[in-house]
Specification:
11% strand, 48% helix, Aminopeptidase, 9-stranded mixed β-sheet, alpha+beta, single chain, 568 residues, Transcription Elongation Factor S-II, Chain A
């Protein structure tokens, strides 16, 4: 078969991916069958076939297409292996838009928790990429913690043979597994162990083979498949206001085993896309909930374990499956009734009902978190994100009802909308899109005061706390901490929690913030007691209880807003 014929058939198959309606299933199956018998001789064409198969697996028009796409995906690694044996350049599989295909290898600098997880899930297929690493200074600072007498060499010699030390100590054990095990033994907190390891910036290489830990195979079989027999829902079919006023979806808590399976899945999903988020690596299996929202879509959400929570905000991460195929990930961070959110649909699936799925994710987040003010990160709109600029992400959210929080950006958006109204062919320039993407956009639900959170940032609170240290304590952070803790304990009429106790970190963090709140003297006994409950809940078993308690404390909300809001 000629290369031209293959490319024509690939284009025909790609044209079928999001086409649904009468007789379309038969056309799609025919196009799939024609490409399936082809022999691929180049990487770009094979990647195109792979992405088409994933879309058909997530959005199947018929059982026949579903079964055929599954069969082809399960054996896809063989096509990759044929190219490797033919001497084809495999670097075309590396870009993050297409990474993670079965049969390929990947390399990245990973956090400690993810490396530890990867070693356990791909035994014998993970290694240190020594050919891309030579940071002698980092090794000299860290390795003596795990190798006896290494300081004798590292402190005074310029040519320490690190791999010889490692080979001598590990015996017959796998090199990276042994290395990770030594960090697990360090007498530090989990957070400090991770930070020490991550200071090495050690490149890790892993080989996917025909593993489930690949984009090709990290989908799940489902009991009931939603077959698309009619055109997809577009953004014009979605009213965010109507969706968010519907009855909340049912959120079902998973068992511990079920939660662990989902946390494993999100690690697989993110790992093979060169992504690592705080909440996708460190999710709490006890907290995972699921909502089945229709059209084959299941949304999973979870929180952080007590020891890894943020000082002030409550954290939710999530994953969406479409007929068992991972199609996007979610990050939401909330304080009182306000939530800022990240929503990222994977490149392969950006033609598939994104607006409707986004609306369902928001329904689930609002039900779980109790929030009524939603803001989107500037990165989502295109700030330092050229992909979002190219896709016009700002207008996606604007047309769903979001408004810019900064006055000058709101006025710019209105001027652009007038231009579009006068000339439907008009498109905002790249420069204008970058300006529009430089600030948060907001959507308020009924019951939320419009504009309250427009100028708020927890970063502002953190900077003000540190300004207080410099101004009143001359940079003495420990002196500031002691004074703040003592003040808060007197205010709440309680003992200072013992060092190392679960509540200690929460107490210290809130003490730092409350040291800036002059209005504390006006709080009544009930408000003081409720503040103590909030501090206790932040390190308790249920992170959402912490957020719900915050939402009931009007005085604390007013104080935080005042501290965290910049000038208009």
């Amino acid at each position: 078969m000629s290369a031209a014929t293959l490319l024509r058939r690939l284009a025909e198959l790609e044209a079928c991916r999001y086409q649904f309606g009468r007789d379309q299933a038969a056309r799609t199956f025919k196009a799939l069958a024609q490409v399936a018998v082809e022999r691929f001789t180049d990487v770009p064409s094979l990647i195109r076939f792979h992405e088409a198969l994933l879309v058909l697996r997530a959005f199947p028009p018929s059982p026949q297409v579903l079964q055929q796409s599954e069969r082809l995906l399960r054996n896809f690694w063989k096509r990759v292996e044929l190219l490797r044996k033919a001497g084809v350049d495999m670097e075309d599989f590396d870009p993050l838009e297409v990474s993670g295909i079965a049969g390929t290898s990947m390399q990245d600098t990973l956090g400690f928790e993810l490396v530890r997880w990867l070693v356990r899930h791909l035994p014998g297929k993970v290694e240190i990429a020594w050919d891309d690493y030579d940071d002698e200074r980092a090794m000299g600072a860290v390795w003596p913690r795990i190798l006896p007498l290494a300081d004798e060499d590292a402190s005074v010699e310029a040519d320490t043979p690190w791999r010889r030390w490692l080979t001598a100590a590990r015996g017959k054990q796998d090199e990276l597994a042994w290395f990770v095990g030594r960090f697990e033994e360090l007498d530090f907190s989990a957070l400090d162990r991770a930070r020490i390891y991550e200071s090495l910036r050690l490149p890790i290489r892993w080989h996917l083979g025909n593993s489930r830990v690949s984009r090709t195979l990290n989908w799940q079989s489902v009991r009931k498949v939603f077959y698309h027999e009619e055109p997809l829902l577009t953004r014009r079919d979605v009213s965010l206001k109507s969706e968010l006023t519907r009855r909340p979806p049912e959120l079902v808590r998973l068992s511990r085993n079920g939660g662990e399976a989902i946390i494993d899945l999100i690690r697989e999903v993110m790992l093979v896309r060169y992504r690592e988020l705080y909440g996708t690596t460190l999710g709490d299996p006890h907290s995972v909930v699921r909502a089945d929202v229709g059209r084959g879509v299941s949304i999973y959400l979870w929180n952080l374990p007590p020891e890894r929570r943020l000082p002030l905000r409550a954290y939710v991460a999530g994953l969406t499956l479409k007929n068992g195929v991972p199609i996007n990930y979610i990050e939401a961070i909330g304080l009182f009734e306000w939530m800022e959110m990240g929503f990222n649909t994977f490149y392969t699936f950006r033609g598939g009902e994104v607006a409707w799925i986004f609306a369902q994710v928001l329904r689930c987040l609002c039900a779980l978190m109790g929030v009524t003010c939603i803001s989107m990160y500037p990165y989502q709109l295109g700030h330092n994100n050229e992909e979002a600029i190219e896709s016009g992400a700002f207008w996606f959210y604007r047309k769903l009802g979001f408004r810019p929080g900064r006055r000058e950006l709101f006025q710019l958006a209105e001027r652009e909308e007038l231009r579009i109204a006068r000339n439907p062919a008009y498109r905002s320039s790249v420069r204008t899109l970058r300006r529009l993407a430089s600030g948060h956009v907001f959507c308020e639900l009924p019951g939320s005061q419009v504009g309250d959170w427009d100028r708020f940032s927890t970063r502002t609170i953190g900077l003000r706390v540190n300004q207080e240290i410099g101004r009143k304590f001359d940079g003495d952070t420990q002196g500031f901490r002691k004074a703040a803790i003592s003040r808060l304990a007197r205010f709440l009429d309680t003992d200072v929690p013992a060092p190392g106790s679960p509540i200690r970190a929460s107490f210290e963090e809130y003490a730092a913030v409350m040291s800036l709140v002059a209005e504390l003297r006006s709080w009544n006994a009930s408000e003081k007691q409720n503040l103590l409950k909030i501090i206790q809940a932040r390190s308790g078993p249920a992170e959402m209880r912490y957020l719900r308690l915050l939402q009931r404390h009007g005085k604390l909300r007013a104080a935080m807003l005042k501290l965290g809001s910049g000038p208009r």
